[in-house]
Amino acid sequence: MKHHQHLSMRVLLGDDHKIVREGLKMVLADDPGLQVVAEADTGPAVLAAVRALQGTQGIDVVLLDIAMPGMDGLDVLQALRRDWPGLPVLMLSTYPEKQYAVRCIQLGASGYLNKSTDPDQLIAALRRVAAGGMHVSPATAEALASLISPGRTKSGIELLSHREHQVYLLLTQGHTVGEIGAQLSLAPNTVSTYRARILEKTGTKNDVELALYAQSLGATH
Question: Integer distance in angstroms from the first to the last C-alpha of the chain?
Answer without folding.
Answer: 38
